[in-house]
Amino acid sequence: MAFLEVCDLRKCFGETEVLKGVSFTMEKGEVISVIGSSGNGKTTLLRCLNFLETPDDGTITVGGKRVFPVATEEEKTGGNRLTFGLVFQNFNLFPQYNALRNVTLAMDIKDENELRAAGVKSKERKAILKQRKADNVQTATALLERVGLKDKLLNYPCELSGGQQQRVAIARALALSPDILCFDEPTSALDPELTGEVLKVIKGLIDEDRTIIIVTHEMGFARNVSDKIIFMADGVIEETGTPEEVFDAPKSEKTRAFFAKATEKE
């Protein structure tokens, strides 16, 4: 059984069908890059996997556990959100918090929610949370150092470059230890120099055998780091295969047309 199984995933916005039955699998430690023109459902797919959008139909199974559909709303908003972590293309940092707090915030909220759900009484909960918050600061500090921001812990988003903000966002996603890490066009808002520093961080995560899904327009990067390429068009997976299969010998006319346009732009 594959680590991730997505079967016939569908999503409509009003009368517009954005995902028209998307199915794919991936193994633990595998890297998949999702490519295709804008407006073909790539971002919607990631948002559905991360429960930022609720699919209209289909199933999602991770490690043999079905995470969509689920039995209760409590189950969906609890553990299943930690199955996936998402790094947004526009960073989505909280401007009122420094880099360190942007990373610790989600951990602190998760800890408090878990203790409340477990029925831990208020006085005991406060004592536990005090220690966990100290631990979370240590974890966040280590993560920010790991993405090259050792000297930026107390800087606010407005004081950071786009590449630095994206690296904070990556550290934040790693903080919750997701089973599958998702990137939604992580370099689209960056200039070429800053793109390189973010791709270097992502490459480092890939080298750690993490399970990663990347929506990207960086064709060279996708080719070099991916185990599998998914090409989406018109809300479906038009073609899938190894980088060599998809880039060197695409079977679909739509895939060939996409690469032809990409070559023209270059």
How would you characterize this protein structure?
The strands form two sheets. A six-stranded mixed sheet has the order 6-7-8-3-9-10, sandwiched between helices. It has helices spanning 42-49, 73-77, 99-117, 122-146, 162-175, 192-206, 219-225, 243-248, 253-265, and strands at 4-13, 16-26, 31-35, 57-62, 65-68, 84-87, 180-184, 211-215, 228-233, 236-241. It is globular, with a radius of gyration of 19 Å. Helix 3 (99-117) runs parallel beside helix 5 (162-175). It has one domain: Rossmann fold (3-Layer(aba) Sandwich). It contains nine helices and ten strands. A hairpin with a 2-residue loop joins strand 1 (4-13) and strand 2. With 266 residues, the chain is α/β, with parallel strands linked by helices. Helix content is 42%, strand content 23%.
The backbone outline, from C-alpha atoms, is globular
Rounded mean pLDDT is: 92
CATH architecture: 3-Layer(aba) Sandwich
Q: What fraction of the residues are assigned to beta strands by DSSP? A: 15-25%
Runs in which pLDDT lies below 50 for 5 or more consecutive residues are none
CATH class identity: Alpha Beta
For this structure, the CATH topology is Rossmann fold
Q: Supply the CATH superfamily name.
A: P-loop containing nucleotide triphosphate hydrolases
Share of helix, binned: 40-55%
Radius of gyration: 19 Å
Count helical runs.
9
The end-to-end distance, rounded to whole angstroms, is 40 Å
Count of individual beta strands: 10
Overall tally of structural domains: 1
How is the biggest beta sheet arranged? 6 strands, mixed
